[in-house]
Amino acid sequence: MAQAQPSLVILVRHGEKQPTPANDPSLSEAGVARADALEKALAGATPGTIVVTATKRTQETAAAVVKRTGITPTVIALSGAHVKSVADAVMKASGVVLVVGHSNTVPAIVNALGGPKLPDLCDASYATMFVFQPARDGRAAQLVTSSYGTPDAPGASTCAPPSR
């Protein structure tokens, strides 16, 4: 019997966040608009698994997709083994998987799934969407980098030290 494996993994950073509280802010108005844009972007690729962290901003980013699909998100703690735990959960899923993470975790998760090593996303970068197809049946893994929602501001891809 073949082991379960996702056919497609869509990875995004959480939407824009409020400045406070620093430890677990909610989404800002722009972040709520981005979450709505994510739901529209995924209208043709309904996820059967949604992975988020325990932070409000990742859960709120996935909320419109959760509401439409009725899928209960898998919440994975931001611990030292976070990237591996997310990759393990993704690779046990089948069909389309949505992962909502952070500027410093999304690229590492792509790599842990068998994709290329990517730099962390810049702190001002929120529009990037990674569409990853894991290696399967002799085919190499494929990664498409795209964007969704309102484009990032000019210079958003020039990094200062990132925050989660």
Automatic annotation (TrEMBL):
Q: Which protein is depicted?
A: Histidine phosphatase family protein
Upper lineage? Bacteria, Pseudomonadati, Gemmatimonadota, Gemmatimonadia, Gemmatimonadales
Report residue spans for region: Disordered: 145-164
**SUPFAM superfamilies with a match to the protein in the record:** Phosphoglycerate mutase-like (SSF53254)
Write down the superkingdom of origin. Bacteria
Q: Which InterPro entries match?
A: His_Pase_superF_clade-1, His_PPase_superfam
